[in-house]
Amino acid sequence: MLKSEELAKGIQDCVMKIVKQREDKFVNGEADSFGNDFLGLLVNAYHDSDENNRLSMEDLVDECKTFYFAGQETVNSLLAWIVLLLATHGDWQDKARREVIDIFGNRNPDSKGISKLKTITMIIYETLRLYGPSNGLQRRVTRKVQLGKLVLPANIDILVQNIALHHEPHQWGDDVHLFKPERFEEGIAKATNYNAAAFFTFGLGPRSCIGMSFAITETKVAISMILQRYTITLSPTYVHSPMPILAIRPQHGIQVILESLHNNA
């Protein structure tokens, strides 16, 4: 068995074990339903009495895997890159911390304040441009399409690599490889000169990422709480080597030094 097949089987077995535990709790009377969380909804659909609405076990497992990788791995990767970029750009780290302290003080972030984090938002967008969590968008061409001199026949799969478009000098300028959050000072539309296809970390159109707002909010909360508590500097052991594994991840991890801002922390 190939290593990839072994890993795929391990993930599937793990998900099915969790599903079985949820089912057993209901059958044994430990719970009065399968639950009203995401997993509970999927298990309910799997047991639906209407065959037309019933979810297969294969689909259930696939939904769980998508929920995990899209909802956790991508945000983890984004947070890692933001921490790295703040460690290597102390001026932006200081600006972001001042903004967080001005809005929240030492309180935990709340929804009202989150919407006011302009500097943090700029940093998030620029990080997504440089190290987007997705390697690209895969789509199937349903009919013959001509794009300039390029002809795409029907029934082929294409991969639109957003990382290439996010590093396009004609769109972003000759400093495209530099970390410059000020690009997004007036929002995404102005930064892209109103070209929606120039920045599509979360996809485009009706099939864009449903978790976009949640991911951005989650990232703002996490970064705010880190900046309230620590200064971030780069460890001399860090080796920069981005690598595409589902999401674009640091091959050797992120090594930074966190120093407490409070003596009793």
From TrEMBL:
Note one Pfam family from the annotation.
p450
TM ranges are: none
Query: Which residues are involved in binding heme?
Result: C209
Keyword annotations from UniProtKB, A to Z = Heme, Iron, Membrane, Metal-binding, Monooxygenase, Oxidoreductase, Transmembrane, Transmembrane helix
The protein's required cofactor(s) are namely: heme
Q: How does it sit in the membrane?
A: Single-pass membrane protein
Q: Which InterPro entries match?
A: Cyt_P450, Cyt_P450_CS, Cyt_P450_E_grp-I, Cyt_P450_sf, Cytochrome_P450_Monooxygen, EF_Hand_1_Ca_BS
Question: Is this entry keyworded Oxidoreductase?
Answer: yes
**Keyword Iron belongs to the record:** yes
Q: Name one GO molecular function term.
A: heme binding
Localization? Membrane
Q: Name one GO cellular component term.
A: membrane
PANTHER family of this UniProt entry? CYTOCHROME P450 CYP749A22-LIKE (PTHR24282:SF226), CYTOCHROME P450 FAMILY MEMBER (PTHR24282)
Report the sequence similarity comment from the record: Belongs to the cytochrome P450 family.
Specify the protein name. Cytochrome P450
User: Where does this protein come from, organism-wise?
Assistant: Gossypium darwinii (Darwin's cotton)
